[in-house]
Automatic annotation (TrEMBL):
InterPro entries, per database record: Homeodomain-like_sf, HTH-type_TetR-like_transc_reg, HTH_TetR, Tet_transcr_reg_TetR-rel_C_sf, TetR_SbtR-like_C
DNA-binding region(s), residue ranges: 35-54
Swiss-Prot/TrEMBL keywords: DNA-binding, Transcription, Transcription regulation
Domain spans labelled HTH tetR-type: 14-72
UniProt-listed PANTHER family: HTH-TYPE TRANSCRIPTIONAL REGULATOR BETI (PTHR30055:SF234), HTH-TYPE TRANSCRIPTIONAL REGULATOR RUTR (PTHR30055)
Tagged with keyword Transcription: yes
Full protein name: TetR/AcrR family transcriptional regulator
PROSITE patterns listed in its UniProt record: HTH_TETR_2
Length: 187
C-alpha cells in the first residue's frame, strides 16, 4: 500500500517559517542565548507555531545554518563571475565573516549536529566555493598557486570565534586582511 500523497505546505505556513528563520538569524547573531519564546514573539507567531516548524532549538539552529551556508556558497560563484579575483575573494570573505556572527555561540550545536563536520552536506560545496575563488586568483596571478582550500577554511574558522563586541567589525577586518595577505603573491 502506498502512503497518501504529501500535501503542499500552505502559503501562510511557508511565510511563518521564513519569518521565524529571518528573526532567528538576527537573534542568534546578537546573542547565542536568544530564547525560542522571544524569537516567536518577534516573528509574530505563537510558540506552538514555532515548535511545529522547529521541534527543538537545535533543529532551528541547524536549519538556519543550512540556509545561511547555502547562500554563502552560492555567492562565491556569483562573485567569481562578476568581479576581479581579489575583490571577489575579499567580498566573499566579508560575507563569511557576516555568517560567522551567526555561528558564534551556536557552533557547538552545529558541530554536534554534523558529527564534527564529518556528516555536513555543506562541507564539500563550501570547499568547492573556496577552490573556485582561489583558482580564479591563481589564474590571474594575484594569489599563490596550489593553495589548499581546507587550509583556507581553517584560517576562516577564526571568524566564528570573534565575540560580538563593539570592536568586532574592526577585528574582523584586520583578520581578513591578514588572511588575504597570506594568500596573495604580492602582499
Amino acid at each position: 500500500m502506498t502512503p497518501p500523497p504529501r500535501r503542499a505546505t500552505r502559503t501562510d505556513a511557508q511565510t511563518n517559517r521564513a519569518r521565524i528563520l529571518a528573526v532567528a538569524g538576527e537573534a542568534f547573531a546578537a546573542s547565542s542565548g536568544a530564547s525560542m519564546t522571544a524569537i516567536a514573539k518577534q516573528a509574530g507567531v505563537g510558540v506552538g507555531t514555532l515548535y511545529r516548524h522547529f521541534p527543538t532549538r537545535e533543529a532551528l539552529i541547524v536549519e538556519l545554518y543550512h540556509q545561511e551556508i547555502a547562500k554563502v556558497i552560492d555567492l562565491a560563484h556569483t562573485l567569481a563571475a562578476q568581479l576581479p579575483p581579489l575583490e571577489a575573494l575579499r567580498r566573499w570573505f566579508e560575507e563569511v565573516a557576516r555568517y560567522g556572527k551567526l555561528k558564534y555561540g551556536v557552533s557547538e550545536v552545529i558541530h554536534a549536529a554534523t558529527n564534527g563536520g564529518l556528516d555536513d552536506r555543506n562541507y564539500e560545496p563550501f570547499l568547492g566555493a573556496i577552490a573556485a575563488l582561489l583558482d580564479a586568483g591563481a589564474a590571474s596571478g594575484d594569489l599563490k598557486p596550489g593553495i589548499d582550500p581546507q587550509d583556507v577554511l581553517l584560517q576562516l574558522s577564526v571568524l566564528w570565534r570573534i565575540p560580538p563586541a563593539p570592536d568586532a567589525p574592526a577585528r574582523t577586518a584586520r583578520v581578513l586582511t591578514l588572511i588575504l595577505d597570506g594568500l596573495r603573491t604580492r602582499p
